[in-house]
């Protein structure tokens, strides 16, 4: 469709005797025509509703024409609307990832925007990042997070060396931890990053012992929720690591439970045993639920107020251990788990 519209434009210009504009020649990729137009005095800063001639050339990813325009004094800091929003020609080039065009623009005096390094971080091209830093680009935390998330360790090193510290609360550590970029995690921790609870919890839920060891060393307080998560999911080795690191065995979870309750509800027998052996206690009672139900008895409707819940942990476990399984294998498996848990709770004096 585009080729057809260009052909129509060329035919129209030919028959009407008009001279194609500089932007038209750029859109057609006519390098010789652009060169001739500039030599004849065409304005290198010609614009249309989408942007400047330079913006068109950058969007077309045409290195030769970009270089010609810049040599003809085209403004390297012009903006364009080649997509749905306005952006600088340098940002457009960064999004396309064309190193030569980025280099031409910076050498011509293009000023990096606040998002320039973020865009460069997405490509993972360290040479472009170096060009931007040399041009005075300011690296925000989003650039560090993006490079950490993508696993671009050399760019992370460059940012840290340039003084972009891994500040506590930044997303870079969480991003690299979630993608299991262990070496980047080590770099960020060495630079002073502190693991948030989300990062530790995610590693704990996946049973990633090595990553948990790294993260918990930086922030034991953020690891209480991780103990709840690991207990619930039966991540036995992670639970051992967290307890050894000094995480309180009776830490409170988000829902007012504690690791022991999480392990019990999750039917994690081995974890229950481990937690109890380390002094886990529980005075937890399951929430009381009150429901008004209506039954039909013959021709009459009968209303009944039902109350459930309110059991202690031991009462809940014994109730589950005594429930009928109906011969279903999964229910039978649960019954055996709760029977064993009841024995453990009784052994450690929790009733």
Question: Your description of this structure?
Answer:
- The protein has 351 residues and is mainly α.
- It has a domain at 18-111: Ankyrin repeat-containing domain (Serine Threonine Protein Phosphatase 5, Tetratricopeptide repeat, Alpha Horseshoe).
- It is built from 21 helices and 6 strands.
- The strands form 3 sheets. The chain has a two-stranded antiparallel sheet. A two-stranded antiparallel sheet has the order 3-4. A two-stranded antiparallel sheet has the order 5-6.
- Helix 8 (116-123) runs antiparallel to helix 9 (126-134).
Tally of individual helices: 21
In CATH, what is the homologous superfamily of the domain at 18-111?
A: Ankyrin repeat-containing domain
Q: What is the CATH domain class of the domain at 18-111?
A: Mainly Alpha
Strands, total number:
6
> C-alpha Rg, in Å?
33 Å
User: Share of helix among residues?
Assistant: 55-70%
Q: What structural category characterises the helix and strand content? A: mainly alpha
Question: Do you know the CATH architecture of the domain at 18-111?
Answer: Alpha Horseshoe
Mean pLDDT: 85
Task: Give the terminus-to-terminus CA distance.
Answer: 78 Å
Q: Tell the overall outline.
A: elongated
The biggest beta sheet is recorded as:
2 strands, antiparallel
